[in-house]
């Protein structure tokens, strides 16, 4: 394994619109070690989501390098990038995006089975994660029968289901009330640490950010 799970080097990203060019990232750089949990704290519109999408290989930078576990994504074709993302990256969004027709357990098992894990083993892993998030008794419930906090726990468990070495989270508790957000976030940190997963977590909440190993912010397109 590389010394760093994630390395971003001189990342640049500019979007074209009817009003002209908008440079969101301009030489952004970051290293993230295995097991390290880093808070990304920056105002809306500063480029947090763009940075996470680039780190998770959902977008390509205009310039610079995204290196995951020693592999430069720029050296890969689309198939290779997809394989690298599926092997190493889990993503959590602000909204849970659960499949309404599947139970909590099934929502976590499906990504594993797509990756080739036998159903029995996938279900076992799913139940273990649900229990870690205090949701063992809710395994057979459809999303419509779960609270907002429970749905987001399931979404986080789904992101961790394939044992990613890197977790990227974009305001994972931003859609929850303060009390629920605190509970879900504590469980997220506990499980991520127990799985020794590197994590980059965007949040507006300074109290949540203070619980992580270190904090970074975006300023003029760079990470500081």
UniProtKB/TrEMBL annotation:
<keyword id="KW-0472">Membrane</keyword>
<dbReference type="GO" id="GO:0005886">
    <property type="term" value="C:plasma membrane"/>
</dbReference>
<keyword id="KW-0813">Transport</keyword>
<dbReference type="InterPro" id="IPR015854">
    <property type="entry name" value="ABC_transpr_LolD-like"/>
</dbReference>
<dbReference type="GO" id="GO:0022857">
    <property type="term" value="F:transmembrane transporter activity"/>
</dbReference>
<dbReference type="GO" id="GO:0044874">
    <property type="term" value="P:lipoprotein localization to outer membrane"/>
</dbReference>
<dbReference type="InterPro" id="IPR003439">
    <property type="entry name" value="ABC_transporter-like_ATP-bd"/>
</dbReference>
<dbReference type="InterPro" id="IPR017871">
    <property type="entry name" value="ABC_transporter-like_CS"/>
</dbReference>
<dbReference type="InterPro" id="IPR017911">
    <property type="entry name" value="MacB-like_ATP-bd"/>
</dbReference>
<dbReference type="GO" id="GO:0005524">
    <property type="term" value="F:ATP binding"/>
</dbReference>
<keyword id="KW-0547">Nucleotide-binding</keyword>
<dbReference type="Pfam" id="PF00005">
    <property type="entry name" value="ABC_tran"/>
</dbReference>
<keyword id="KW-0449">Lipoprotein</keyword>
<dbReference type="InterPro" id="IPR003593">
    <property type="entry name" value="AAA+_ATPase"/>
</dbReference>
<dbReference type="GO" id="GO:0016887">
    <property type="term" value="F:ATP hydrolysis activity"/>
</dbReference>
<keyword id="KW-1003">Cell membrane</keyword>
<keyword id="KW-0067">ATP-binding</keyword>
<protein>
    <submittedName>
        <fullName>ABC transporter lipoprotein releasing system LolD</fullName>
    </submittedName>
</protein>
<keyword id="KW-0997">Cell inner membrane</keyword>
<dbReference type="InterPro" id="IPR027417">
    <property type="entry name" value="P-loop_NTPase"/>
</dbReference>
<comment type="similarity">
    <text>Belongs to the ABC transporter superfamily. Macrolide exporter (TC 3.A.1.122) family.</text>
</comment>
<feature type="domain" description="ABC transporter">
    <location>
        <begin position="6"/>
        <end position="224"/>
    </location>
</feature>
<dbReference type="GO" id="GO:0098796">
    <property type="term" value="C:membrane protein complex"/>
</dbReference>
<dbReference type="GO" id="GO:0089705">
    <property type="term" value="P:protein localization to outer membrane"/>
</dbReference>
